[in-house]
Amino acid sequence: MNNLSERQLKTIDNQVTGWLAELGQQVRQGLGANRSVQTKEGDFRNLVTDLDKSNQAWLLDHLRNLDSQAHFVAEEGDLKRPETMVGHVWFVDPIDGTLNFVHEKTDFAIMVALYVDGQPTLAWIAKVMSEEIYHGGPDLGVFCNEQKLPAVVDRSLDQAIVILSGRRLLSGEKPYRLLAEKALAFRVIGSAGISFVRLLQQQATGYLSKLSPWDLAAGRVLSESLGYQVKRLDGEPVNMLLSNTVLIATNKMHLETIKVIKD
């Protein structure tokens, strides 16, 4: 499966889209159930639930049956992370925005992405509560369910609604403060997946945050496919096996932001 034809890409896209529709339905049906909620790394805001774990196990089981030679990077548990991006690497975030899921019952997502020899290839972001699945890649285009999305409009920073990490904004980190001051407006969402959906729908123009591989992988594929730049603040490419402070923005906004930060 290393050299995937357009037909193979469409087959995989349809398969995983169907799985996420099924999994999203299961999540919605069980929304009122009592959940086991724990904290991770001693951080009372960093939550994990039994649903995070069961969703991940369900997805990994299905993906392994689809692509038996692949490697996996997933958020929960002690799954061994690959050392390189050679071959097929799948990224799984079983509930992105767990705090939103637990306390608000909305603005959370399920995310899956496939990279082939390090190249962003296919991705899926399921916006669970609205039954929307954003999916596709550079060779297929990007879709919300069955509707194809247009390329991004290249807006500048002063026209931009920017999504920022609330924690880093509150701590006064320079890039976040400067973007909040220079942009048309800023938002704090609490979910990478939902933040990427705002970008894909062009309801926002940029997104700055420190993201783990599973937070970034799907959004990177879909955002780049629509014309966004996805880079570290120093302009270097992201490392998909490590956490990165990443700016996702239009070409104009990306150039202006780097200049603002350097000045």
TrEMBL record:
GO terms for biological process: inositol metabolic process; signal transduction. InterPro entries: Inositol_monoP_metal-BS, Inositol_monophosphatase-like. Mg(2+) 1 binds at E75, I95, D96, D215. It comes from the Bacteria. Its cofactor is Mg(2+). Keywords: Hydrolase, Magnesium, Metal-binding. One of its GO terms (molecular function) is inositol monophosphate 1-phosphatase activity. Mg(2+) 2 binds at D93. PANTHER family: INOSITOL MONOPHOSPHATASE, INOSITOL-1-MONOPHOSPHATASE-RELATED. This is Myo-inositol-1(Or 4)-monophosphatase.
